[in-house]
Amino acid sequence: MRLLLRDFKDAPLAWSGVALVLIASQTMVGLLAMMLSSAKALGSLPGMAEQGRTAYQNLMIPFVALLIAAVLIVLQVVSSVINQRRRNLALLALQGATPWQLTSLTCMRVFILALAASVVSLAASFLLARPLYAWETSQFLIGRQPFIATHQLASWAVGTLCGILVALVGTLLTIRAISQISPVESLRAAIIPPKAAGLVRRIAAALCLLAALAVMLMPIMQARTIPDEQLVRLNTAAPILPIAMGSTFGFMLLLAAICLAGPSLLGTVTSGWTRLVALHNPSWLIACRQANVRMRSLSSTVIPLIVGVSLLMMTDSFYQTSAESSSLLPPNLDVSNSDFSMLITLLGPALVVTLAGVCAGYLISAHGRSLDLSLISIAGADPNQLELMSALEGFIMATTAVLISFTSSLLPVMAYAAGFRKVFGAASIGIPWAHWALVFLLLTSAASLASWATVRKSAGRSPAGVIAQYTGE
């Protein structure tokens, strides 16, 4: 216990990031568990069986998506904490600790933080469950349904237990990162993460990619074209819903592949597009080299950012594709409003966890960023060069995130448009270019400003002092 408390005290920012992700995931899991309990109770009321079954099935979709997203985000965040704490883990390994003992120690830390997050979840879930349930059910084509408070504490406890198990599963998946820690090499280079994703994660990423393609294509292959004489009498968009759900779940598997590929994907994309934009400015060249190196250590920040942007923009693209495709159909059939407005509802809880992962990654990487700036400063860079280089580095990282997000959101939208054309005979791919441009400007501006602010914050500190503090001198 003393060792646990000492590590929390030695790395407050890193473990604060883990706590932030756990609070977000525990709160969302607890909320959805209480909503599922209410939907189940709704089905037991006379004449409400259909509404209760629809609400339960639709709420189960964001619940499963949330559990998958939470595992992936916890994996990213805990892996980043391990990479930052390699020096401390190496010291324990020198004293005889095995990889499983180090993993157990990490799991115990996450378990303690998950229990603390459950306290916050308890207060937030009971406060937010009733109003959010009414809003959620209003998106499911069954109207706003009353919240039935039966067995709410038990359902919250079950949901919280699922959240704790998800956190532990995400932590256990880091056993490979811990087992690769060589005590001597880790003490020589304490902050260098693995250069690429391991073989197991690469295989898992490839399997997720293949599964995503299969899930998106199978509903299209099984769909049947509606004849024109039936199309003018059709008043529901039910035939397209399996294709929409297949594209949505395929998109989630695609995001899982991105999370598993992690540092390898980020480094490849960054080096690829920065070589195409071959500027000869010294600050740009240094920023490119720094970004290529730091992408590996910043995967816990950039990957959740990619997931969050992809979720938002895929939903926007889905809606615009539905709206533009609906204009090509008979006026009796409109699939652009009610049927697909619930996509945001389905993906909302997972989006909350991914945004928490972005903030957590920034907290974890803040300490290592100060060390990088100090090393460059000692190498001869003046403050103005550091500020410009840092702003450009933030711009490069945000651009990489937008490029990957655009590609990952475009594939399921294209699959949905292809299925739409097969079912209804006409379709149009809607890409919200103006929204993408706005997202790009906001992300690059925010990333550049945050990186520039980091330099300004470190301006008054002695570079030698920062390096000495980091190395324990």
Automatic annotation (TrEMBL):
Q: Which keywords are on file for this protein?
A: Cell membrane, Membrane, Transmembrane, Transmembrane helix
Q: Where in the cell is it found?
A: Cell membrane
Please tell me whether the keyword Membrane is annotated for this protein. Answer: yes
Q: Does the keyword Cell division apply?
A: no
Q: Which residues cross the membrane?
A: 12-39, 59-82, 110-133, 153-178, 199-220, 240-266, 302-320, 340-364, 395-418, 433-455
Which GO cellular component terms are attached?
plasma membrane
InterPro entries according to UniProt: ABC3_permease_C
Which segments constitute the ABC3 transporter permease C-terminal domain? 64-183
Superkingdom of source:
Bacteria
For membrane topology, the record states: Multi-pass membrane protein
UniProt protein name: ABC3 transporter permease C-terminal domain-containing protein
Organism, by scientific name, is: Bifidobacterium mellis
